[in-house]
Amino acid sequence: MSDAHTPELVIGIDLGTTNSLVARVVDGRPHLVHDGSGAPIFVPSAVSFLEGEQALVGQAAVERAPLAPERTVLSVKRLMGQGLADLSPEVRAQYGPELVEEGRKLVKLRVGERLYTPQEVSARILRELKRRAEEGLGQPVTRAVITVPAWFDDAQRQATRDAGKIAGLEVLRIINEPTAASLAYGLGGKDQDGVIAVYDFGGGTFDLSLLRVQAGTFRVLATCGDTFLGGDDIDRLLVSRAAALLQQQGIDPREPRLKAQLRRAAEAAKIALSSADHTVLRLQDPTRGVRLELELTRADLEALMRPLVERSLELCRRALAQSGLGPADVSEVVMVGGTTRIPYVRQRVGELFGRAPHTQVDPDQVVALGAAIQADILGGGHSDVLLLDVIPLSLGIETYGGAVTKLIMANSAIPAQATEEYTTPKDNVTAIDLHVLQGERELVADCRSLARFKLRIPPMPAGLPKVKVTFLVDADGILRVMAEEERSGAEAHIEVVPVHGLTEDEVDGIMADSIEHALDDVRVHQLIDLRNESATVIRAARRTLENAGDQLTAAQREAIVAAAARLETLCEGQEVGPLKEGLEALNQAAEPLAEVILNRVARETLAGKRLDEIEV
Description:
Layout: E1 11-15, E2 19-26, E3 29-32, E4 42-44, E5 46-49, E6 55-57, H1 59-64, E7 72-74, H2 89-93, E8 98-102, E9 106-111, E10 114-116, H3 118-137, E11 143-148, H4 154-166, E12 170-176, H5 177-186, E13 194-201, E14 206-214, E15 217-226, H6 231-248, H7 256-272, E16 278-285, E17 290-297, H8 298-323, E18 332-336, H9 343-353, H10 366-378, E19 386-390, E20 395-399, E21 403-408, E22 413-414, E23 416-422, E24 431-438, E25 448-456, E26 467-473, E27 479-485, E28 490-495, H11 504-516, H12 518-548, H13 554-570, H14 576-589, H15 591-606
């Protein structure tokens, strides 16, 4: 058992699209963990399957990729928690193994006769990181913090947690990569108040996070990202240019082995142009008669990648708009991810924010170092840093009529919890279908369905059940929904694991749609609420009229019946104003009936009591 003052060993893992790293805190500062040979653990995120259950992981897998592309998986992170519909044809074409869908419509990779989930492939990478860390540290490693892109949704975060479990790791926390980077820089001397923009352009994903720093507290103001924008896409553009030359030579560039060789050559050329003005993309394969030399300049690369960089900058502008900030409000800009080594990226980011971005910490290591700091905090290490992350999109539940009631709003700090109380619109309901949704619009049809589950209750009159629904988002960003009917004690709950992740178009369009359709959405939502309220009032008025209508005059009874009938007709229309007026008219017509009921209750309450027994 460890000493009370000695932090437990918890490692930080950057499970990257291109490379994965392990770090830990030593003497109060984060460092990469070294393996048994004394080298920093920096493992390419690649797995190449041999015959049987054996596989090569890391650099050996990368080297085998051109020889066995159909058995080698690169950039598996892009497949985590995804369905085929979430992947563009260009992304699907990057993978050697065949991508298939099974069961819950999640992608699997066909390698030989076997199907592997992305979690299983990622677990191989995590298991290799764990093995090397144990060799270097000389002790078991069982607990970890793992980073993910800020725009990973619930399914992708759960998939990452599952991969850790398969690898034999207890995942104490899933944290966003930009958040981890902010931790690394926060303990590196940046203790002044202000706003930090974390620009994270990695191999497979892009994220921009805005964080407000005050007295050692980091609060994420907003995040915007794209799970299908990264350095891999730059490689793909270079591959396309080289492939066109091969086709002119009568060579098919789609052949799997040649495609893998092209990808490696393109990446090497991209890296070379980060420090040189000129390079040659070379590819030779004498066995196939392939000899390619494509001269490239830095200007060529910048022209190719300009649209991709502009996509990233547009996401930066969107995050600023969400936070109500301008570029001048940002105190510092932190660069994360290998793609930020490219001078053109640094130049354009500097132009947008009006200041040179910070690159003091190795952009490939900064996420792992931040994860190590979070791991040290969770392991009991002393730290004055407080981190508050946010929910990227609003979470809510479907209500009667197809409307969405938002319980937790976008950019709420996590962990977060919200509770709302509902009832039933009809008599003798025995099961309530709870539909959990994500998005910024007001109607179910315009939001993303996350999950459904049922709460079974005893039959009761409409309006009598008291159903309390609680949304709880934990520190990992995982949503749990609980429902309880208070009168019967019936309970139901679910941990939300959606079928798919968000597609690129959905992510790009959600916020824009919510603004464009805001007025129409509010009007329709208001119409649904008024219809529901009207149905309740009509039902109550008619029921009460049957029980106590004989105490009203004929004119009063006729007024209630007429007002209820008119309101029922108005509920079939699409206008909010007349419906409001009709509801008010029925309420006014029913006032004499309400007085009769109140008088009856008072008489029953006071019956048989002396004056001194009545408390006022």
